[in-house]
Amino acid sequence: MKTPKRLFRSILLLILPIAIYCTHSSASGRVFTVRDSIEMVHFLPDPNGDCSGTQIEFSPDNHYFAFVTYRGIIHSNTIASSISVFSTSAVQDYLRGGKAPRPHIIARIASIPQTQDNCPYESTIFAFQWFPNSQGVLFTAEGGAPNERRLYEATLASGSMHALSPQGYDVKEFVAAGDSIAYEATSPRKVHPVGERINPDAIDITGQGWDSVLFPDLTDNDSPDTLWVVQKGMNRRITGDPAHPLQLFDNSVFSISPAGNALIILLPVKQIPSLWATFEPDPQYPYLRIKPGNLAALAPSQLPLTYRLVDLAMGKIQILIQAPSAKSLGSLHHDGAIWSPSGKRILITNTFLPLEGVNSTERAQQRYPCVAAIVDGYGSTIHCLVFNRYTSVDQSPRLRSDSFGITDNDVVLHMENLSDQTYTDEHYHFENGEWQFVKSTMSKLDATLSLAGALSVMLRQGVNMPPALWATDLQRGITKKLWDPNPQLTHMQFGDESIIHWKDSSGYEWTAGLAKPPRYVSGKRYPLVIQTHGFFHENDFMTDGTYTTAFAARQLAGAGMIVLQMGYNTKHMYATSSQELSDQLLGFESAIAQLNAMGLIDPKKVGVIGFSRTCYYVEGALIKDPQLFTAASITDGVDESYMQYMLFGMEQPQPEQEQMYGTTPFGQGLMAWVKNAPSFQLDRVHTPLLIGTIGPESILEEWEIYASLRMQKKPVDLLYIPDGQHILQKPLDRLASQQSNVDWFRFWLQGYEDPDSTKAAQYRRWEALRKLQEANRAP
């Protein structure tokens, strides 16, 4: 066990390199550009990390660890991804003074990203895991068609890779054990006929959405998932009962036994016992209480789920616990199924327990969900370790993960204390036929740390420190940078990035990231660009900002501007009034006032970028405070306009705009819309506006504001990216969006035009817009 002195030394060794890097300032070299950002190497995030963390996986024998990196290739418009492996022993030798090892690449995929992703910086390799024998990895990667992920395997010995799943299927989950590989996949996308066919030339489309009529290929695939198993190199689909073919509607639980002969999944029920009405839903969601009745009225995805056991050899399916998953009733604990080392016990989390055959005392207790239960004999006996009594969400510990110990008789529950963001490990032991709580200890390891024996590996980065892999010998307290994936950044100039806090006049405290230009001169006032979507991540290296659509923080800073990456005031978000917009406008105004008071900016040269929901904030600010911004940009977003109401209102039970404006835009209600909806007040806009659209739907959504401003002869430019994602991933899509924004704000805030001859047409358009702007200002 480490002494406090040795522990302090280890922490110091981890922090010191970061401090040294942050105080280093490159005196030479070029500035960071949009191309540099696109071609920068990123690490695949932890699948449980909400776009953060890093997935670093040690092999089962701890002899290797693997990770995924990827970068954009502009000339081919592809994302190049690879799986790299380090030898654990080589890293340990390096920490003891040996030669620095290099990663060994065992799989490569380069393709144009087509799978929709909610995180910026999408990889074309999505997830991976080691084979049980540590001789290779399984992984999913782009399959060549939209929303198609194929399952591949790559081996260490040969360095070769090949696909396992059929072409056209989208693989959602996969696991391997023994000689079996199980995976869940969606069948190929089908374009369903829309409306009722009248004759070969006509269709009645009453009640249909316009998007499904005009763009049927863009609608979501609502096909259920299918279950497959690979054994002895052969693919086989598990169909279950022929009368009720197996259809998967949830992939949160997908756990294979150590022998590879059984799989645990969640499936919808076919019947709801009357006793299930007794189960208590989370108090936040009282409407989720189970109501036995006619199941035909419910879609399969709306039915309660139960834990099931699938025999992978025979294809038979049985209920493991005769009670619903607590997820079905709103419980926010971790769903999961973990097998014991012998495979004779299963640790099931977030489930209710059966009410049949229990006494009144047990029934009263089992009305509430069991946070973690031990199942013996495939459901013959069930022991709950701890029940969830639905105490306050802010005070109740949340199950983060769970595991068995070395034997079947020990269990550890890793709990997150939401009130103070600390972690504890709860230890349980089975003895004399009972499971007993043993002790609770503070969790010592960072949740992002990958560990094998005395060796730990993790990704380290800071707001001014590019990400790199670091390794630590925990016994000797030695830490070294193991591998820098972006050595080119060492020779570039980066201005300082810092965290700034301020309060607006309502008392709300804002937190944002502030990027200064390289060679920043104290006392000089710079143009400012505000990026408005997503909270600033204080521990991440800042490049573009929170997203890759339109945002270009370090690139704008490199061009001689100050950039503020700010989030939003959440107090009235999605409120039933215009207070949400007022809150954000107050944030913009107070941010500009604060930076002006600090002597950092020229308040007459301020730009703003809106994306997604914050387009509403930017458009509203241009109307309510027309002199606040010198230039603006919005891309693919909401603006609560009349046009967007007509496009999407029919599909919603109560459209957001009706709640905001208190009425529909029909009859007398139209007057309230004319007074409040931004689209009726665009005559007040004087700020040059760049509008970015992504896909055909986006053109329709943004056409009202574009056409209105253009017809009023106001300076507006329209950028169209036909096949992009909402969060742009393709290198050429990003280049168009981000570079256009850099050029736009340099033009309006600095009077700068890029001498690149390929941009000549762009600047001719913008010079014409400048003449419009001057004409509008003329008395």
Strand line-up of the largest beta sheet? 34-35-37-36-38-39-40-41
The Rg value, from CA coordinates, equals: 29 Å
Percent of residues in beta strands? 25-35%
Averaging pLDDT over every residue, what do you get? 88
- What class, by secondary structure content? alpha+beta
State the helical fraction: 10-25%
Unreliable spans are 1-27
CA-based shape: globular
Tally of alpha and pi helices: 14
- End-to-end Cα distance, whole Å, is 79 Å
- Main sheet: strands, sense, barrel: 8 strands, mixed
For the secondary structure, the number of strands is 41
Task: Describe the protein.
By secondary structure, this protein is of the alpha+beta class. It is built from 14 helices and 41 strands. The chain has an 8-stranded mixed β-sheet, with helices on both faces. Strands 1, 2, 3, 4 and 5 form a 5-stranded antiparallel β-sheet that branches. Strands 6-7-8-9 form a 4-stranded antiparallel β-sheet, with no helix packed on it. Helix 7 (579-597) packs across helix 8 (614-624). The model is unreliable at 1-27 (pLDDT under 50).
Short description:
It contains 14 helices and 41 strands. It has an eight-stranded mixed sheet, sandwiched between helices. Strands 1, 2, 3, 4 and 5 form a five-stranded antiparallel sheet that branches. A four-stranded antiparallel sheet has the order 6-7-8-9, with no helix packed on it.
